[in-house]
C-alpha cells in the first residue's frame, strides 16, 4: 500500500473556497497545527506502507489528526469522522486545503491505523506533544527531570462479571459461533438459559441467595452440555483453519469459565472476567466507593511543575506498584529524551529498587534528609491525582473500548497525548487573549492621542 502525501495544490480552484479564507487563523487549533511536527510523523510512519502494492493509503496527517481529535473530544471513531465533515477547523488541522463535504475515511480504518502503528507509534505521538509543549513554552526543559509517578486502573468496557452472567455469556457466544460454523446443537438453551439468568439476578437482588445459587447451577449445567455437544460435532466437520482456531479459542474460554469457582484454588489458572476480553484483570485499589475494578493497571509519569504527561505505561498482570517504576521511567525517557533525576511517589512504591546516583526516588511521608525544597516537591506529588481524574473524565481512560492488550497500551498513550494537547490549547488561548488585549489597548491609546490632538 503506497502512502498518499498531504500536498496543497498551487493552482486555485475557482469553484471552491480555500479554508484559510473561511476560518480565523488565530484559532487555537490553527495555531497548534502549525506547531506540530507533521513531517516527523510522516517520516516515521511512511515505512509502514509498501509502495506500489494495493490502493494508496490516506495521508498520515489526516489519520493522526483524527486520532488526536477523537481523544480530545472523547468521542467514538464514527462520531469523529462524521463531525470532521462539519467542522472546517478540524479539516484545517488535518491538512486539508479546501472544505470537504464527504467523509474523509471509513471509520473502521481508525482501528486499522492504530494496529498498524502499534505501541511504538503511539509513543512517538506522545513524544510529539511533549516537543510541542516545549516549543509553545507550555512546559520548560528543566521540569522534565522532576516527575511524579502513580498508577491507576484503566477500566475495560465489560459488565460486572457475576458467575451467572459469565456462564450465560459464554453459552450465547458458543451457540452463535457454532451456528456460523454450521454446527447444529441438540439444544441451545436460548429461552430457558436467559430465563435462568434473569431469575438468578432477581433472587440475588431479593437476597434469596440459595435460590440464586440454584439458578446459577442450572446455567453451569447448560454451558457444560453446550460445550460437550460443540466438541463432538466440531470434530465431525472439516472446518477452515481460521474458523477452527476461533472455535478452539472460544471453547477454551468457555471451559475455563465453566470450571472456575468464586474462590480460585491454588495452582489454578487466572480467572476469566469477560468472554470477549479475557485479558481483563480484577484489581483492588482500596477505594471505598469501588472495591474492585476490572481492566488493566496503567502507570503515569507527569512533570511535577506543569503536570504534563510524559509516560502512560500499560501494565498487564496486576504487578506491584514498586516493580513498575523502572518501566514507567524508561518510557518517559523515550518520549522526552531526558532521564528523570528526581522522582516523587506515594507509599505504594516502597521496595522499588530504582534509586541510583543519577535518579533519586522520594516516597511521600519521608522525613530523613528532606530539605525544605524537597518537602515542597513532595507536597506537589498529589498533583498527579487530578491529572488522573481529568484523563478519566475528559479523555477515554475511564472506559477502554479497544481490543486486547495492544488496545490497552494504545488507549493509555493516546489519552496522555490528548491531555497534553488540552494544556497546549489552553496556553495558546491565553496567548491569543493577551494579544487581543494588547491590540485593543494600543488602539484605544492611538484614538485617545488623535482626539487630544
How do you describe this structure in short?
Helix 1 packs across helix 14. The protein is of the alpha/beta class and 453 residues long. Helices cover 51% and strands 9% of the residues.
Your description of this structure?
The longest helix is centred in the last third of the chain and has 49 residues, at 404-452. It contains 14 helices and six strands. Strands 1, 2, 3, 4, 5 and 6 form a six-stranded mixed sheet that branches. It starts with 27 loop residues before the first helix and ends with a helix. The protein is α/β, with parallel strands linked by helices and 453 residues long. Helix 3 crosses helix 14 (404-452). The model has no long low-confidence stretch (mean pLDDT 89). The chain has helices at 28-35, 38-45, 60-73, 77-84, 88-93, 108-135, 163-180, 190-205, 209-236, 241-259, 325-336, 372-379, 384-394, 404-452, and strands at 146-155, 281-283, 293-303, 309-315, 342-345, 360-363. It is globular and about 100 Å long.
